[in-house]
Design brief:
The protein has about 190 residues and is of the alpha+beta class. The chain has 2 domains: about 40 residues, no CATH class; about 140 residues, Alpha-Beta Complex (Nucleoside Triphosphate Pyrophosphohydrolase), CATH 3.90.79.10. It is built from 4 helices and 10 strands. The longest helix is centred in the C-terminal third of the chain and has 14 residues. The radius of gyration is 19 Å and the shape is globular.
């Protein structure tokens, strides 16, 4: 299939917070005709995310933080989501554990990979590896909240999983990676959809 795509030109558009390039490609359609396509591609690296679950208490750890693109699209911008971060050269599991310590203030155990997906393959290169993990309060190692010098202002939410499922159903949790991990945890626990 790769012989159907030929990159003719790459034009750098931005090299600030992320890399943004304009690609001009020749694309051979299934019928043999050739189209010349122009696409802009956003690249800020690959990432990992994790939904920690406390089996004894039936709770999960989530974060709430401001997301400008959501703010620009008819929300207040404060999105409830699983903790996540860029790999920065690390293995996805190492990244997920690091982000949980930085954002949530917890050391996780029994990390299990659920999926590795492209969340927006039409415009973004990021591949996101998703995990479930266990936590308990004896493994709390800090306050969490992220790094202020990175622009992070993260509120930690510890909520009953039953409440989180209802929030997802009611449209209060709208982040794709979070919805997916909630559904993976439902499946793991043998819970029927709401």
């Amino acid at each position: 299939m790769t012989d159907r795509v030929k990159i003719e030109k790459i034009e750098p558009l931005s090299r600030h917070w992320a890399k943004l390039d304009r690609y001009i490609i020749s694309y051979t359609r299934r019928d043999g005709s050739v189209d010349r396509l122009v696409r802009e591609v956003h690249d800020h690296g690959h990432g990992a995310c994790v939904l920690p679950y406390d089996r004894r208490r039936g709770t999960v750890l989530l974060v709430r933080q401001f997301r400008l693109p959501a703010y620009l699209n008819d929300t207040d911008g404060f999105i409830i989501e699983v903790c996540a971060g860029l790999l920065d050269g690390d293995d996805p599991a190492v990244c997920a554990k690091r982000e949980a310590e930085e954002e949530l203030g917890f050391r996780l155990s029994h990390l299990r990979q659920m999926a590795s997906t492209f969340m927006t393959p039409g415009a973004v290169t990021e591949r996101l590896t998703m995990f479930l993990a266990d936590y308990d309060h004896a493994a709390r190692i800090g306050a969490g909240g992220g790094h202020a010098h990175e622009g992070e202002d993260i509120e930690i939410l510890e909520l009953p999983f039953a409440e989180v499922r209802k929030m997802m159903k009611d449209g209060l949790i709208i982040d794709a990676k979070t919805v997916m991990l909630i559904m993976f945890l439902e499946r793991e626990l043998g819970l029927p959809p709401l």
